[in-house]
Design brief:
The complex is a heterodimer of chains A (about 325) and B (about 400).
Chain A: H1 3-23, H2 26-51, H3 59-77, H4 81-105, H5 109-125, H6 132-135, E1 141-142, E2 153-154, E3 157-158, H7 161-184, H8 187-197, H9 199-204, H10 209-235, E4 237-238, H11 245-258, H12 265-283, H13 288-302, H14 306-319
Antiparallel strand pairs in A: 1-4, 2-3
Chain B: H1 2-26, E1 37-44, H2 54-69, E2 77-84, H3 89-102, E3 107-109, H4 114-126, E4 131-132, H5 157-171, E5 177-182, H6 185-198, E6 205-211, H7 219-227, E7 232-236, H8 239-251, E8 257-260, H9 267-274, H10 276-279, E9 283-286, H11 300-312, H12 321-340, H13 346-353, E10 383-388, E11 393-400
Parallel strand pairs in B: 1-2, 1-3, 3-4, 5-6, 5-7, 7-8
Antiparallel strand pairs in B: 9-10, 10-11
Helix pairs in contact in B: 2-12, 3-4, 5-6, 7-8, 8-9, 12-13
The chains are: A mainly alpha (about 325), B alpha/beta (about 400).
Amino acid sequence: MSATTKKIIYALSAIALFLLPFLIEDFRVFQVNLVLIYAIAILGLNILTGYGGQISLGHGAFYALGAYTSAVLISQFGMSSYLTIPISGVVCLVLGVLMGFPALRLAGHYLALATFALAIAVPQLLKYKGIEHWTGGVQGIVLEKPTPPFQFELFGNELSEDRWLYFVILAIALGLFWMAHNLLSGRVGRAIMAIREQPTAAAALGVNLTFVKTATFGLSAAYTGIAGALSALAVAYIAPDSFPAFLSISLLVGVVVGGLGSISGAIFGALFIQFVPNVADEISKSAPWAVYGAMLLALAYAAPNGVMGILKNIKKRRQA
Amino acid sequence: MNKKLNRFGILISSAVLAFSGLSASAQPYDTGATDKEIKIGNTNPYSGPFSAYGSFGKAQAGYFKMINDQGGINGRKINFITVDDGFSPPKTLEQARKLVEQEKVLFFFAPLGTAPNSAIHKYMNQKKMPHLFVQTGASKWGDPKNFPWTMGWQPNYISEGKVFAQAILDNQPNAKIAIIYQNDDSGKDLLAGIEAGLGAKKDMLVARETYETTDPTVDSQIVKLKASGADVVIHGSGPKFAAQGIKKVAELGWKPTQYVWQVSSSIGGVLAPAGIENTIGVITSAFFKDPSDPQWKDDKAMLEYQEWFNKYMSGSDPTDGFYIQGYINAQTVAHVIKQAGNNLTRANIMKQAASINDLKLSLLLPGVNVQTSATDFYPIERMQLARFDGKAWVLFGKTYGD
């Protein structure tokens, strides 16, 4: 592809992304927002699992903590919604680094179990009465959606709260994807992957295992925490029931469906965990998860390396 | 003369025409209602850890199927669109918005669960969308001042607390009452109801203990309650803890009158684990006819219910109490739709829901009714007490509640 065609493609995609929310109904915009949010969370987990080779079954916990950090700061301290997003990221970064220390000693399945413990503990801890005046206990916290700072109409659709939030989320998502891309295709990314493949060899080559492993965990948790904070804004309500242990599994499903170790795969993973349960429910009310399971199996069989695996194969065949 | 009369006639008929033309153009329909159909939205947990509650939605779907087979309500079929939310609040909001904004339902009916309903509470009120007869026992659904489009249905925990208080005042006016309750909104609501019901005699409440769902047992709390010298114990505890509590009371050789709230009145889930011999004489409250209770075996309403069940719910468990509650709730909304007649605007649906006057549904216990007003958004508030005789709950005494 020549440089000009690339530029044209970028310009067209930018226009498409700008127009998209005005071409669809408000509630569809809300769904697109959820997809973008899941994509950020999945990307975070993919940094850890796909690139770092460490399995986490507990990222739902960071998602929940990000959401709660943001919601508590808004409802209790009257902080601006936008300001709470980076704070949630930092809080989860710190917690992620702390969680990264045991991760140094626990490998493979043991790490999966340790993080799973986090996933099942957090929803219950959120109900703890000592923090109830902040978290609202089982009743959760009701939030106001951020209102758009200005008004205009396009194709007869006004810039609603959901559409405004779409642009906020899109900007953050693009920034985070760009950052992940730069980070993972450079020195740091090579160090992370070297540890995944051969930790001993990586250490011998001068990679600081302790630092890189904990930093990967922290970064991954920060991404997922930011996604959680955005979900609190998009849904405008959070409760412990919003973050069941199953959420962590869903995120992992998203990573695998999209493709391990692939940045753009996160989008496909997010589309899967957002829409396939809805489709499953439409097919069968009595056993929606059986339908979901069947679809997952079919996908695992047809695309063992995720959606990105298929796309790569198609590209290869064309070039061949 | 003839000519004059003719002219007069023309004048009248044209006036009538103009008038009917006017009323036709006024179209007393909101989106979701037509001459042929009324669209109703609903969410239920058909998947996930709370999927047992999905029985509510299945029963409602079955009820509307029967209504449609019989020709619908006022000539309109009911298109009941019920979708899965897995008891996840974000999913509830997403599904509810899909039903409101895309499927364009006339109103929302009986979504299940406290947290899922909290997620759509504000949304429904902003959209001025009737959010009727929500299926949860929390007390916050009856707040017409702040949330004029949301209404509860089943007796909430405050009403139940009041019923217990009134019954104790009637039967043991000099009782000393001890209560153990779950330290969350449901338990606190129950306590608030008891205190309100006792009114000036609040001193009768001599001991209160709470527990957390994470506690291993409630043994130490029961020991403290006994030390207070109380002769009535109210168990406002979840099923597992109610069973532990009743068992501990027996182990201590203590013989108070024991009340257990409806949530923990399952014979298999609570009384059996507590030891059946320890539970004889325990009192609970009820508001609908239990399909597994032999006393309703030949009851006309129950026979009709069983017939419907066999036809529309075949293969399901007929003793599951969730089905019958879903069925009665659907009957309530069918009444509202019938009352709304041909004026199918959201405002009128809400107005009809808020003016139900002493509606007797035959599957509710005799004496229990549905009653609402512009300031009373708690449809069912009456309950009757039942005592366990070692085999079944036996109803006794009068009906309590407003």
